Amino acid sequence: MDLLQIGTRSFDSRLIIGTGKYRSFEETSEAIEKSGAEIVTVAIRRTNLGQNASEPNLLDFIDLKHTTLLPNTAGCYSSGEAVRTLRLARELLDGHDLVKLEVLGDPQTLFPNVSETLIAAEQLVKDGFQVMVYTSDDPIVAKQLEDLGCVAIMPLASLIGSGMGILNPWNLTIIIESLKVPVIVDAGVGTASDAVIAMELGCDAVLMNTAIAAAQNPILMARAMKNAIQSGRDAFHAGRMPKKPYQASPSSPASGMMPPASKK
Amino acid sequence: MIMIAVHINGTIKEIQTGTTISALTNDLDVAHKKIALEINEEIIPRSQFDSRILQNGDKIEIVTAVGGG
Lengths: 264, 69
Description:
Chain A is α/β, with parallel strands linked by helices.
């Protein structure tokens, strides 16, 4: 078995999906099922009160027996806000300790604020959380986060929600080769080929939301991503042939050819 | 009947003195829901909802899980 080991938990699926931006909870639920994802992210927000108090909740549409929730700190711009949010999440989810830390630095690019991220990561690890952390594709920061005790390092492939794909495979490769904990591409995947490339590079998993939710047919894209992750993983294990620039090599035998036809 | 004012998710609400968290969440129709709650930035475990009495000026935050990436 090729299990994905994150902290004390292990998973069959290497696709982690977000639950934002879907047109309905029913669509969210079906996308999760078709993607095969076993980990899904959720955000923590104020409960609707007053007239909307009785509206359905996302958690009613997720199979909590077979799905691990990953509460995130989306929208937090300081370490303090992020830590507060995840402590609330732990209370909300009955002591659940696996979390996704992200501390943003800029509302336009949603680039992470890595110095605040490091501060929050240290505090959360001290608090007993198992921290999966969104960060830049800087190998030094990635290593620092691993050294602080984070259970997975999740560098961006490109900007959150941009669908621009993998902009710097070289940095990702350095990170993958220098860390022991799982490296998970988080953010920027636009379509199935991006997910394949991430897995071929040797990423342990891919986390995505918009690529599925904003597809014309999210349910079909969820299946495409499931297949892409598996294809990329298999190709990574299989080991690609070496590239031979400008050197063609026929796939069919060069011998046994018939003589040229006689001219009539 | 003496009333006090508390802030709930940023909105001021008048409640009776002696109101517990459980009474408040029942009144707000969120008692049966998956929520977490803090008062003045301190998380209150569910086990204390029946006993904890709200004070004038308390800032209460009630949160839940929503879709996100």
